[in-house]
Design brief:
about 35% helix; Nucleotidyltransferase, domain 5; homodimer; 10 helices; 5-stranded mixed β-sheet
Chain lengths: ~325, ~325
């Protein structure tokens, strides 16, 4: 294996760039802005220039680069074709081929950002030491990534691990961002628990420390729950019920060693895991009932780690 | 590759044996009884003897056998360890090692019977030409098998594809064979639809051709539905709702090319696919909304095909 590799995580605002030794340790990490003008036409050339400049800075030749792994916020097929990224302005094209062409045909592997973050956590984070991992990312939405035998399950339409859109309630009237009603994301994301808090504060007339807040965040709800606020505990329990039930569905299908919970909401810590596990264990298939739950540990670096892992573990 | 291989499908009553050319065509298929006495201690020796006799009959040496694939009715780990088979009287042991030892250390691969049948259908049946397949087997229970990139997703506890135990109803009072309540299997299996018919015939006072039957089978229900019997149509619709919803959960996780429906209930044909698809499409994640549904085509031979495929596609 060649001594160096890059892990690139393209987000809607910045591109996180990691220059790695091929043992998975950082040489350096840095960020560049994501230029979304002209349908994101400059994003890949910007990345190519950044990589060339970094190599020059360190006096390293492209011949010493094993490859470049890239995470993108959209569906990705196995061959590196991205099936449109609304956030970047991208349509359908082969990102792997394009970036490789800009960098002297160096090998490029592309994955969906949630899947790539899952791979990072499986490799060096909350799922370290396990080969089959389900990762759930609780942020603005609910993302997911499935790692089987140390590889990303990308799916036939790049929709592998899109667990945020499992329908959890048939009688929901609010519409999810995906157009359906009753998606897991509507209850178990940062946005979802805040949405649920508004409904509950309206319906439940009991006192709650949440009522004094001008604007409620998911952190506020978990903080209040930790101090014993009954209404907040109820909200956390509902999130746990939705996620625990959905995860029981998921483990009956892919039966992982471990479930890793990440994203901003996971900063709530043990109270979150407890709420999920409480509802997961009774409904999980018996062989999966004792599947471990772990918190993610790599934070915002998970994408870079997972991206570089794709080229180091082809 | 060596010119021959065996595919063995161990059932509770008979062991289906397939002697294959390594291109996947049968030389011959036959059955032997499954001797379950003494905790199933004779099952593997019986299979070993049957294989030796078949080779002698055809004048073929064990040196010309690429390997032996075996499907067993219980959870199987990647290394060939079977985690107990209640139906066979087996506890936990390495079936691959044991059978290989009885046959001069020929390579043996072992898989769960539902997973192996899914692999057979993916290779040469309803999923032919696709690499990512979800197979559902609707028989006495609801079995499932997930094929990703042409390989079985066995899972960390041998529970990959155990989709019959996804919880579909939280308010169910009847208990599933697994000990939980509200499992897919309680609604979508042959037993499940018959169970539901009894409940509906009690509750719904309208006329139905089912009322004239001394004992109702799932075939009776589908046959009556095909003639327009309203109550039977309702039962088929409920089965479709349960299975369609569960499959929407499943495709959001593994995103297959195709969903193959097999098992005895699938003999109902298009009416079954229509009922499932009607409920699947509106709740499926948009990228998976047009995922194809197909009927299984290999019938009882799927297990033998899938078993031999494990050794021909290692």
């Amino acid at each position: 294996m060649k001594p160096y590799a890059f892990g690139i995580d393209i987000g809607g605002t910045t591109v996180k760039c990691g220059f790695f030794n091929s043992d998975g340790t950082f040489v350096e990490k840095w960020e560049i802005p994501t230029r979304k003008e002209d349908d994101g036409a400059m994003i890949l050339p910007d990345i190519a220039e950044a990589i060339k400049a970094k190599l020059a800075e360190h006096g390293v030749s492209m011949d010493d680069v094993e490859g470049i792994g890239v995470g993108v916020p959209g569906p990705v097929l196995d061959d590196g074709v991205v099936n449109g990224c609304v956030n970047l302005g991208w349509g359908v094209f082969n990102v792997a081929e394009k970036l490789s062409g800009l960098l002297g045909d160096v090998p490029v592997q592309v994955g969906n950002d949630a899947n790539v973050a899952a791979l990072g956590e499986q490799w060096l984070g909350g799922g370290k030491g396990f080969k089959n991992v389900v990762m759930v990312t609780l942020g603005t939405g609910v993302g997911g990534g499935i790692i089987i035998g140390g590889k990303i399950l990308a799916g036939s339409h790049g929709a592998g691990g899109e667990i945020g859109h499992i329908q959890m309630r048939k009688n929901e009237t609010a519409v999810c961002g995906c157009g359906k009603k009753g998606c897991l994301e509507q209850y178990a994301s940062a946005t979802g628990i805040v949405r649920m808090s508004k409904i509950l504060l309206e319906k439940d007339k009991n006192d709650s420390s949440l009522r004094s807040l001008a604007e409620i965040t998911s952190k506020d709800i978990f903080d209040a729950a930790k101090t014993g606020d009954a209404l907040s505990l109820k909200l956390v329990d509902t999130l746990g019920e939705m996620l625990g039930t959905a995860l029981a569905h998921i483990t009956a299908v892919v039966d992982p060693d471990v479930i890793v919970i990440g994203g901003g909401v996971s900063k709530a810590g043990q109270i979150l895991l407890d709420a999920i596990e409480k509802h997961y264990r009774p409904v999980a298939f018996h062989a999966c009932r004792s599947t471990q739950f772990k918190l993610a540990v790599l934070g915002n670096d998970a994408g870079m780690y997972g991206a570089v892992r794709m080229v180091l573990n082809r």
